[in-house]
Design goal:
Layout lengths: L1 H40 L11 H27 L16 H7 L2 H21 L8 H4 L4 H8 L3
Length: 152
C-alpha cells in the first residue's frame, strides 16, 4: 500500500517537474521577446553605428536566449534523467552502433542527386544574374512604370 502511494506521488512530482520546466522555458522566451519589443518601441534600446535599433533588440534577444537555452539544457538533464531508463545489470555497448544506425545514407544520396541536378540545370540554362541586367530580362521600361505610378 505504501509503495503504491509513494510511487504515484513520485510520478506526479516528476510530471510536475517536466511540465513546469517546459512551460517555464516557453513562457520565459515569450516574455523576454515581448519585453525587448517594448524596450525597442519606447526607444530605450538605441541604434548602434552599424545596426538599427530593431536589429540591436533582436540580437540582444537572441544572445540572452542562447544563454537561457544553455541553462535549460542543464535543467533538462536534471528533470529528464537517463538513469530512469538504464539498468545496471544490462551490459553497456559503445556509441558506434547507435551512430551507424542514425546515419541514413539514402537521404544523403537523394540530397546529393537533387543538388547535382540543380547545379547541372543551372549550368545548362546559363543563368548568371551578376552578368546580366535584371531589368532587361524583365522587359522593364521606365515609361510603363511611371504610367502606373502616375509619375510622368
Amino acid at each position: 500500500m505504501f509503495y503504491e502511494v509513494f510511487t504515484l506521488a513520485a510520478f506526479l512530482y516528476l510530471m510536475i517537474q517536466h511540465v513546469s520546466l517546459i512551460k517555464g522555458i516557453v513562457v520565459l522566451t515569450l516574455m523576454q521577446e515581448f519585453m525587448f519589443k517594448i524596450l525597442n518601441t519606447s526607444n530605450v534600446i538605441k541604434p548602434s553605428e552599424n545596426l538599427p535599433a530593431t536589429e540591436v533588440a533582436d540580437s540582444l534577444n537572441a544572445f540572452i536566449l542562447s544563454i537561457e537555452m544553455a541553462v535549460a539544457s542543464v535543467a533538462m538533464l536534471w528533470a529528464f534523467s537517463a538513469s530512469e531508463y538504464s539498468s545496471p545489470e544490462r551490459p553497456r555497448a559503445t556509441v558506434a552502433p547507435a551512430i551507424v544506425d542514425s546515419v541514413n545514407f539514402g537521404d544523403f544520396i537523394f540530397e546529393m542527386k537533387q543538388s547535382l541536378a540543380f547545379f547541372w540545370h543551372r549550368r545548362q540554362i546559363g543563368s548568371h544574374r551578376a552578368n546580366e541586367d535584371p531589368l532587361v530580362r524583365l522587359n522593364y521600361h521606365k515609361s510603363s512604370v511611371s504610367r502606373v505610378t502616375g509619375n510622368l
